[in-house]
């Protein structure tokens, strides 16, 4: 069986497999650690194995390589990109920074290594509020590249001086308020778990403050936050507004609870490029190594380390 062959190779070559919560079930089943971007970056910073095989999209494997300059980091498909990380170029960022020379630049982990060389802080959906709150109130912030996460953070932190890049993830931008309200209207007593990258996060929060969802719990969370909430909540039924790959682990860990996707179409084709077959090939051939020039890697490490050292 492919799974047994993968496990044998992992042992023989001293490889650890890290996988994102959106990965295909067949990939999650061979992973040593599954999590959101923060958990995986934290874990990658402590790995003892010789090789890290990263099952996720390219910026995630790149982050693991930046914090492990002496280790071999592999990704089973180099084409596994991210529409959000493609939504800002280095020239656009440099021009933006020139217009706000005193601003602190906070960038989502969904950015390329080159973009990270220009950041003061990196953040993820789990810690963006803490990172923004740690910056003095009188300093301007440039937040990039996700406009929906940015607007949500600005609203929660009450920052008036936060400038937000107009980037988006095509998967989360496609989950509409209408998809969610329809589901919630059909399913009384269900809890809503919503990722802050969704285009409807802020509208939902407005509806919530107007009392529209009074009979539903609503939680805005990272993918790992959703895993934890599902385990600890007393609710039995959840509407899940994020990429559908998360449903596999939610259902596996909570067999007595029901999870309904807000939109069945919310599928990230980049995450799905990684298959068990490609994982096997990647282990066999030790390909594709994530290579970053030392100059870029050294500069990109700073905002990541700043993020990882924050509580
Ligand atoms: P998480 O850090 O919440 O897992 O999000 C990463 C991502 O790419 C969401 O689309
Ligand atoms: Fe990027 Fe969106 Fe895919 Fe996440 S779901 S990896 S943000 S394209």
Describe it.
- It contains 15 helices and twelve strands.
- Helix 3 packs parallel to helix 4 and helix 4 (58-67) packs across helix 15 (294-308).
- The chain is α/β, with parallel strands linked by helices and 311 residues long.
- The protein is globular, with a radius of gyration of 19 Å.
- The structure holds 1,3-dihydroxyacetonephosphate and iron/sulfur cluster.
Radius of gyration: 19 Å
Low-pLDDT ranges = none
Question: The biggest beta sheet, please?
Answer: 4 strands, parallel
Number of strands: 12
| Helix segment tally | 15
First-last Cα distance: 42 Å
Ligands (ions, cofactors included):
1,3-dihydroxyacetonephosphate, iron/sulfur cluster
Mean pLDDT across all residues, rounded? 96
Helix content: 40-55%
Estimated share of beta-strand residues: 15-25%
| Structural class computed from helices and strand pairing | alpha/beta
Shape: globular
Strand order of the largest sheet: 2-1-3-4
Order of helices and strands: HEHEHEHEHEHEHEHEHHEHEHEHEHH
How would you summarize what this structure contains?
With 311 residues, the chain is α/β, with parallel strands linked by helices. Helices cover 42% and strands 15% of the residues.
